[in-house]
Task: inverse folding
C-alpha cells in the first residue's frame, strides 16, 4: 500500500496484534468467577503509575468518578489518558497531577460550561503534555480496530488538516478506489474503567441508553474495570442475554458503586450535579482552590460513600434523581439564587 | 445592541440557522446554539427534521435543552439510543445532510481552529481540540458554522486547522481524500450570513444582519470578504420565532448574548 503522508503525533496505545493475542491468551481468564473488589483494591491492583488509561462514557455522562477520586487519593503518577471527549475525569486527574500526558480528541473543556481552568493551566505551563491530536470518531474507530484484533482501520476524515498532521494516523492510497484514505492505528489502553447500570459478580454487564464507545473500548482495553450502580443476581443476565453489552471474560474486576458517576450524569438514574461542577470550575481557577477542593472531597473523606455525604447526601441525590426524571428543573448558574 | 428591536444577536443567529434546515432532512448537532437552531426548525417549519447527536442519540423528542451531547435528553423518546460508531458511520456513509460547527477562528476557505492559539507544543491558549468537529466538517454533506465575528476570529491564516473547510480552494477537499461534494455551506455570525464563492471557495457575504452595514462586516474581518453587488438584509426574527426560542431556552442559558 502506498503511503502518501504520515502524521507526526506520538503513537499511543498501539500494539502488534500477535503480541496482543498472546497477552490475551496468557492473561485474560475465561473462568466464570466472582470478581468483586473494593474501589480501593481495584485502583491499587490495576491502575499502575505510567500506564495508559481510558475512561468510559462521554463528557460528563456515565463516567466512573468513584474510581477517578480514588486514583487521586492513592496519588497515582505519570498516567497517559485518552482525551476521548474527557471532561470532568481528565480535568480532575490532570489537576491532581496523576495524568501528565494526553492524546486529545476533546479535553481541557466542559462543553457549554466553559474551558477547564486547571487542566488548561497544566497544558499551557508544560506540566501536562499533549502527545497527539485526533477526533471523536477516530478515537472510537481506533478502539474498534483493537476490538477486532486488526492493526489499523481506514476512515475518510482528518485528511487535509493539522489535526491529521499532529495525529498518529497515516494517509495511504486505497488499493480499490485509488483515492487517499486515512489509516487509524488500533488503540489498546492498558486499563479502561467503565461505569454501568448493572452487572453480575462475574462482570456480565448492561448499559441503559447510549453506549457511546464503551462497546468498542471494553473489547480494546487490556484490563477492564467495571463500577456499577448495582450488582444483580447470577440468573439476571441470562434472562435477557440480548441486553449484555459486555460479557464477563473481558472484565477483570467489578465494584458496586451506587451514584458512582457523580457529579456526572447516569442515564435514567440521576442528572449532572451542575452545582458541584460549577463549584469545581470556580475553585479550580487557582491552585489553592484545587488543593482545597481535594482536601474537602478526596483527602478529607474516607471513601466515595463519604464523598456522597459531603456533596449533599440523600437530599442532593434524590434531587438529581428527580431532575433526571424531568420532575425538577436543572440547577444552573443563570438562575441560581 | 439589538435589545431595542426586541431580540438579541444570538437569537437572530439561531433563527438564521434554523431557517436553513429543511423538513425531511437530517442534521448532526452539538449543544448550545446548534441545538437551539435544530429545535426551533423542528417546532416551526420542519417537524420531520431528523436530529442526530454524536454520542448516539437519534431522532429524540427533546423535552428540555440538553447541557451535553451525551445528556439523556438527547435520546429522550428517540428512535434509537445507539453508539458513536453507529452515528459516525451514518455520517461517513452520506446519511447526514447538515452538520453544525462552532469555531474559535476561521479562515477565508472556511477552515476552522478549535485546538490551540500559539505554538502547538507550547500553547498560549490551549482549546479543547476537534471533538466531533473534524468528523462533521469532513463527512457531512453541508456544514453550517455558527460563530462570533471580529478581526481576531476571521483571520487570513490559522495557527492550526482543526476542521477542514475548503482547505486551499476548489477541489482541494477531494484531492486530500475527503468525500466528494461536501464542505461548508454557510457561516452565520452576529453580523452576517456568508456562503462560499463557487470558483475561489472564499468566504462571500450573502446577507447582512438587521441594521448592519457591509462596511462593518468587512471591517470586522482580518481578510477580504467576497462582496457581490447587492447584499440584502436578513429578515428579523418573527414573533413566532421569538416565542419558540424563549420556550426552548427559558433561562436564556444560550440566548443571553
Result:
Amino acid at each position: 500500500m502506498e503511503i502518501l503522508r504520515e502524521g507526526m503525533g506520538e503513537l499511543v496505545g498501539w500494539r502488534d496484534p500477535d503480541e496482543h493475542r498472546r497477552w490475551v491468551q496468557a492473561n485474560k481468564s475465561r473462568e466464570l468467577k466472582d470478581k468483586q473488589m473494593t474501589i480501593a483494591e481495584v485502583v491499587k491492583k490495576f491502575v499502575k503509575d505510567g500506564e495508559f488509561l481510558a475512561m468510559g462514557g462521554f463528557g460528563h455522562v456515565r463516567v466512573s468518578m468513584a474510581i477517578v477520586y480514588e486514583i487521586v487519593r492513592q496519588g497515582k503518577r505519570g498516567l497517559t489518558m485518552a482525551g476521548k471527549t474527557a471532561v470532568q475525569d481528565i480535568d480532575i486527574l490532570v489537576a491532581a497531577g496523576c495524568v501528565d500526558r494526553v492524546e486529545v480528541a476533546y479535553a481541557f473543556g466542559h462543553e457549554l460550561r466553559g474551558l477547564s481552568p486547571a487542566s488548561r493551566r497544566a497544558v499551557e505551563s508544560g506540566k501536562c503534555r499533549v502527545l497527539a491530536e485526533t477526533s471523536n470518531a477516530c478515537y472510537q474507530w481506533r478502539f474498534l480496530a483493537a476490538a477486532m484484533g486488526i492493526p489499523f482501520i481506514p476512515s475518510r476524515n482528518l485528511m487535509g488538516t493539522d489535526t491529521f498532521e499532529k495525529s498518529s494516523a497515516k494517509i495511504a492510497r486505497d488499493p480499490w478506489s485509488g483515492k487517499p484514505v486515512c489509516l487509524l492505528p488500533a488503540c489498546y489502553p492498558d486499563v479502561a474503567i467503565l461505569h454501568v447500570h448493572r452487572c453480575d459478580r462475574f462482570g456480565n454487564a448492561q448499559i441503559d441508553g447510549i453506549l457511546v464507545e464503551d462497546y468498542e473500548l471494553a473489547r480494546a482495553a487490556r484490563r477492564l474495570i467495571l463500577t456499577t450502580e448495582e450488582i444483580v443476581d447470577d440468573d439476571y443476565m441470562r434472562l435477557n442475554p440480548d441486553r449484555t453489552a459486555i460479557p464477563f471474560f473481558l472484565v477483570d474486576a467489578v465494584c458496586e458503586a451506587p451514584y458512582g458517576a457523580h457529579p456526572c450524569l447516569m442515564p435514567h438514574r440521576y442528572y449532572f450535579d451542575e452545582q458541584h461542577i460549577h463549584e469545581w470550575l470556580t475553585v479550580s481557577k487557582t491552585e489553592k482552590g484545587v488543593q482545597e477542593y481535594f482536601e474537602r472531597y478526596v483527602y478529607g473523606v474516607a471513601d466515595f460513600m463519604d464523598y456522597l455525604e459531603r456533596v449533599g447526601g440523600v437530599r442532593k441525590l434524590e434531587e438529581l434523581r428527580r431532575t433526571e426524571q424531568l420532575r425538577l428543573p436543572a440547577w444552573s448558574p443563570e438562575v441560581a439564587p | 445592541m439589538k435589545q431595542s428591536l426586541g431580540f438579541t444577536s444570538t437569537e437572530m443567529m439561531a433563527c438564521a440557522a434554523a431557517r436553513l434546515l429543511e423538513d425531511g432532512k437530517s442534521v448532526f448537532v452539538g449543544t448550545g446554539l446548534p441545538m437551539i437552531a435544530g429545535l426551533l426548525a423542528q417546532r416551526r417549519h420542519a417537524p420531520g427534521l431528523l436530529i442526530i447527536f454524536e454520542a448516539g442519540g437519534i431522532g429524540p423528542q427533546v423535552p428540555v435543552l440538553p447541557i451535553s451531547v451525551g445528556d439523556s435528553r438527547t435520546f429522550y423518546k428517540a428512535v434509537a439510543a445507539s453508539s458513536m460508531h453507529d452515528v459516525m458511520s451514518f455520517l461517513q456513509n452520506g446519511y447526514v445532510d447538515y452538520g453544525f460547527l462552532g469555531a474559535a477562528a476561521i479562515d477565508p476557505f472556511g477552515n476552522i481552529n478549535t485546538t490551540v492559539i500559539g505554538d502547538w507544543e507550547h500553547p498560549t491558549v490551549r482549546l479543547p481540540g476537534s471533538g466531533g468537529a473534524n468528523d462533521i466538517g469532513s463527512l457531512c454533506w453541508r456544514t453550517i458554522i455558527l460563530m462570533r465575528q471580529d478581526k481576531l476570529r476571521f483571520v487570513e491564516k490559522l495557527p492550526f486547522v482543526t476542521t477542514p473547510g475548503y482547505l486551499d480552494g476548489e477541489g482541494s477537499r477531494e484531492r486530500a481524500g475527503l468525500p466528494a461534494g461536501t464542505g461548508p455551506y454557510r457561516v452565520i455570525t452576529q453580523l452576517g450570513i456568508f456562503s462560499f464563492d463557487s470558483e475561489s471557495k472564499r468566504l462571500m457575504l450573502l446577507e447582512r444582519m438587521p441594521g448592519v452595514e457591509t462596511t462593518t462586516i468587512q471591517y470586522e474581518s482580518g481578510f477580504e470578504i467576497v462582496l457581490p453587488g447587492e447584499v440584502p438584509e436578513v429578515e428579523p426574527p418573527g414573533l413566532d420565532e421569538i416565542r419558540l426560542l424563549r420556550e426552548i431556552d427559558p433561562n436564556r442559558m444560550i440566548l443571553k448574548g
